[in-house]
Amino acid sequence: MTQVLLRRSAEHKPGTRGTRVDVLSNMFRFIPNYKIDFYQYDEAFVKPGKAEPPTIGRTRAQELLYRLQLDHADIFVAKGAYDGRSIIYFAQRIPSGTYDLRELNEKASPERAARLQVKLTEVTKFASRDVIAWAEAGRPDVINMLQIYLRQLPNIKYVTPAHQKNYRIFYTDIGSVPLGNALEAWKGVFQSVRPTLQGLAINVDMTTGIMIQGGSLSDVLMARFSLNNARQLAVQETDSLWRQIRQFLYGIIVAWGGVPGRERQMTIVGLVPKAGDFVFEMKGNDTPAPITIKDYYYMTHLKVLKFPQWPGVRNRAGTIVPIELCRVIPGQLFKGKLPEDGQGRHLMLKMAKGKPRQRLDEITRDTLPRTLNFDATDPTHSGMRVNHHPIQVEARNLQAPRIMFQTEAIVRAGRWNVAKPQLRAFRPAVAPVWGVAIFVGSQDEHFVDQFVNSLVQCLKRLGVQIDNNRRTQRGTGQNILPTLEHLLPDPKDKSKPGYDPRKNPEKLPRFVLVILPESAIEIKTAVKQWGDRMIGISTQCCRIDKVKRNAVNNQYCNNVALKINAKLGGINSIALTSMYADRVWSQQTMIIGADVSHPPPGVFDRPSVSAVVGSMNGHFTTYSYSARAQSPTEEFIGQLHGMLEQLLRDYHDVKKDWPQRIIFFRDGISQGQFGQVAARELMLIRRAFERIGNFQGGSSPKITYIVVTKRHHVRFFPKEGNRNVSNSENCLPGLVVDKNITSPVYFDYFLQSHDALHGTARPSHYTVLFDENEMSADDLQELSFALCHVYASATSAVSIPAPIYYADKVCTHVGAYHFDPQMLRDAAQSQGDATADDGDGKYKVNVGFWNAALGSRRTPLKKKFFFL
User: Fold this and answer.
1) What is the DSSP annotation of 602-648?
2) Rounded to an integer, what distance in angstroms lies between the CA atom of residue 820 and that of residue 839?
3) pTM, to two decimals
4) Are 308 and 439 members of one domain?
5) Total tally of structural domains belonging to the chain
6) SMART domains this protein is in (predicted)?
7) Residues 827 and 834 sit within 8 Å (Cβ to Cβ)
């Protein structure tokens, strides 16, 4: 198996290009005690007389272990650090054995209090002399121990479902902000131990979590889906609202069956219709008898269900509880997305608008003393200390690449303006024939005409050769395809045998501008399937609310014009750097971007989609793509060899040559997956080379494999008094860090390529796991920064290299629009081809079916930016 490349300082020296600048980080020195040994124990709950261990959740387990140590204070002088599952650490040796545990219920009798026991078994000892060395080398078991010690206080103090699912972040409802639709924003704190080149550090960051509001489940659902009448909750499985409710509720924890604090809890995995009429067998002294849920509650609790026609929620064990009896536990993360133009997103942005320096001050003055105050009263006796001064980092500001349209753009803080002065596209497209499909009422005709005329002027100023004459059709949601087909040449011939408008491509519209209503998912889906799959025509959709707001807005029209030029095969601009000056290097290099997107939480009957894009020119501005369906939640791209083979053959079709170098940018892999995912994908890349087998000169391309991570919490801040900052008071775009706080194990660097409009800019983290091209840190960083400037429709540097951005867009676009709709309809009727319910609230996805629905033939627009 191909091995990932571990960092060796002698081989990978830091970069030197750019201007030296010192910045502050949200990293803090972590100082373990060099004289204290640590002991790891396995922990297990035991019920005397029972063979099977009791099922105990993490929150209750933390409480029980805390109570155990109070009850046996003479033994547990140094309190343990517990992971909430099965491991506990102590800063002194504790006798292995079984300890009686008193229940938390203060009214419980002594007999009942002794029914639960805890068994502790010593596993290993971490000697003080080894802890530091192993931790600084990144040894996972030692880092895990330190993480648990770090979080012990928050684990006890900040108990929410969100914290139980991610122990690195804890949230508080103090200062929470209602967002509407049953959602609210809570402030959170992230903290994690990181080994660095200069020793151990703690990464501390502020974050915001979107929470589902607590309270009555029926009230939450009414607010979430804007229902005005309780009868609207009496949904059936055939209702569209049923699927939305099921998706929203999946994974939510609710309480039921008692007063607050004494209730039972369950995690929802499914729904059943008309819960009151649901029949089950009630166990009793005699033979189990069938009974409805509403009769059961009346018989056993004298409880009359007010809404027996409402659904019930089901857990994995099969327990069903009517919605009206359930209460949502506060502090649960909402895993969906806020609407782009909604009030909730506006309020979230308002919360995030604080200046970078305010964020750092909040961390150092409030968060650290509150959560990381290891002092002489530390009950764990760990002897750990945290330096409350942020680590200063030696960084460099890279020179921005030159952005070339037909003339050079003026770049300020990573941004440029297409209209001032007016810039013409580096390679404008041609659109002698085009069309407009309007799916809104005639009352908006004035705005549509204004917008279309403004857009045409922007396209012309961009250099696109476009005729003012266009084919225009009006339609509704009931005649989508006929409306679109009337834009094709000779639509009256459609009924003739062998009719295929693609046989005369010169007569086809080069693109179709589509004006959509505000809510138009079905129309947009049909438009994209028609344009991408059926005909091979680029389509540009614009919602009427945006059209009305921006009918004569030059900036909006220019942004749409940039998308259209790219979709037509034009090149808006290129980025020039010293590396690109080496034409041999760039002409013989293929840049790859790869990503996997997964179905949203609560969606069980759709696959994940993997996508790979590959550059087709020496400026790295045109790309082809390949996409596949794969098993949900699977991060490894199992069909990478076939996908890459397609891209290599596309490259050869365009350039009549094979690449000598492949720079592979991979999104979405966590450090824990490096060995498993990256190594396997490198093997599949080799297999793609073997399938081609006839590379010029007999040698296959050399590979550089880089993982790019966006979801991390490292941030950089200008030092106080530094005036060389952006308008948002962030560090300037092009900030690169490859010293001080980077990994002692891997060859990595942080690059902040963009400026944030609001709040603190997030750098991307690059980890080089394989490098046959032997690229220097300077070359890799310069290339990464340049690729952040070639995103086709942007007028600013973006936060990640464009090919990764494109791969992410392809995943989303293909997953939404490219599966054969007829096959999906047939599968829905046959109930089983696409997915099968396993009876446990989950579905088994038939990946073969979904790839058949995707089809072996890619869209005719494969080498154009159809996904923008």
Assistant:
1) T--SS-EEEEEEEE-STTS--EEEEEEEE-TT--S-TTHHHHHHHHH
2) 27
3) 0.92
4) no
5) 2
6) DUF1785, Piwi
7) yes
